[in-house]
Structures are given as C-alpha cells and as structure tokens.
Write the structure tokens for this entry.
Amino acid sequence: MGLSEQTLIERYFHDIGAARDDVILGVGDDAAVLQPAPGYELVATTDTLVAGVHFPDDCPPAALGYRALAVNLSDLAAMGAAPAWALLALTLPEAEEGWLREFAAALGALARQHGVTLVGGNTTRGPLSITVQLLGSVPRGRALRRSGAQVGDALFVSGTPGDAAGGLAVLQGQLAVAAPWGEQLRERFLRPTPRLALGAALRDWASACIDVSDGLLGDAAKLAAASGVGLCIEWQAVPVSAALGMALAPEPARQLALTGGDDYELCFAVPPARLAPLQAALPPTRWGYTRIGTLEAQSGARIVRDGTVMDFSHSGYQHFR
C-alpha cells in the first residue's frame, strides 16, 4: 500500500526549514497563521515547475527540491525582500519514498540556509508539477520595483547570464562540453543562486530591479517598459563565464548570455549620482555584477556593437505564443 497524503506530509514535510518565532501555526492545520514584524510590508510570489516544460523528465529530485524554492527566492531578491514562509503544492505520479526523501532534504536545506519555514501546502496525484508560494517582508516603503528607472540610469546584471541555458543544453545532450566546464554549466541550471544579499543591499542604490528568469534582454526590456523608458545594451559589456566561453564560440556564447533563460540573476538600474557610492559600498568584483548599458529616452531595446545597432530581436522566453 502506498503512502497516504497525511503520512507523506508528516514524514517528509512537517518540519521543513528554519524555526521561526513568527509562525503561530504551520503545517498540519487548514491554513497557516503568521505574524509579520511591525514596520514591514508583506511580499508574496509563486512559481510552478512542470516536468517537460521547466525541467527534463529525468531531473534529479534533489535538484528539483532546491530549484523549486530557489526560483521563488530570486523573485524576493529582486524586490529587496527577506524570505520567511513557504507553501508547497506538489503533484506526483507516484508517492515514491526515495524521490520524496531527496526532494524534501534539498528543499529543507535551502530553506534553512535562508531562514524559511514551510508552513503548509497540498499534495495530489497527477503529472509531476511543483508549485511553491513564498512570503517574505521588506521595510515599509522600501521594496524595489521594476518601475522607477529614469533616462540616464546605468543598467547592471549580476553573475554571468546564459550559463543556465547552456547547462540545460548539456543536460539534454545538445551541447558537449569537457570537464569541468560542462558540470559548472549543468549546476547553474539545476542549482541557481538566489541573489538575496545583493537585492537587500540594492534598496539603498537601485531605482529599479527585475529577476532575470526569461532571458536578460527580455527581462531588461520589461524593466525599461515598466519605467517608461528604453534601453541600450553594449554587446561587448555583457559578461560571459569561462565555462560558457569554453562551450561555445564567442558570438553564440554572448547571444546565449542575452537570450537564455533560467539564470535567476538580478538586472537593476542605478542613477548616475549613485554610481560612485554604489561601487564604493558594493565593489563589483566582490558582489559580482557588471554594467551592461544605459536607460534612454528612445523606446524599446537596442543592442549596440562598436557604435552600430545590431539586428537583434529575440525578446526572451514566452510561455504562450
């Protein structure tokens, strides 16, 4: 006989994550009861990962447990928020204990690392689908938004975009890369790094911020559109990792850095007057971000190479076309 829903929850998800004093009532009741701190605003996000759409069918369960929470942590990072509570809706073809054990262990480890407690959710039978809702908080009036950037603001990106798309190609057998570069790319897809510390620090400096999940060019264009401005990205300024540079020739590597999805980095704008103080307070080499362009009055997104506008129309991943 398979596991009952109640047994599954009690065995694998009852004590996931950090112990928090602001959880009045967590897993095991009809709903959670939570107590946000005075002077803070609630921030909420949710993401769904579907087998065959967001990850390969044979993706390791530990990677899925990590990734399901990490993509939501990245959303809160883009708001400058601190994560606190998570809910999990898990649809499974079968309640396989080995799979559940690895999934829950990885989810719990990342939750504890970032002070998150799993406070509820739901399980059901069906094609594999994982939905995490994440709640957190930000000091009142301090949340970062996509809107707020102005003409002349500098545009930055954290990390090295394109690595996750390269890693997915490695996992799917579409890209052969020698060790250790192939493994580095693979890990960037399976275990993205949520930039929570950077997001919180940017509350003092950034005029706008967005999570890079559907491709750097497309998400940067969303930030510009939300702010009512356009953007110009310098082709040669877009960072390319050593691993991606070993996997692809320079041209396709930088194109993938601009268009590949699933990086979960931060793209943010900073007013000119704050540039020097930002770089003094958060040195780019230590915090891992790169200036890639400027926001401008001309609407849309331009890619410029050696002073010439490139014919570059890819706008990022779209779920529905």
Remarks:
- Residues 316-321 have pLDDT under 50 and may be disordered.
- The CA atoms of residues 230 and 299 lie 4 Å apart.
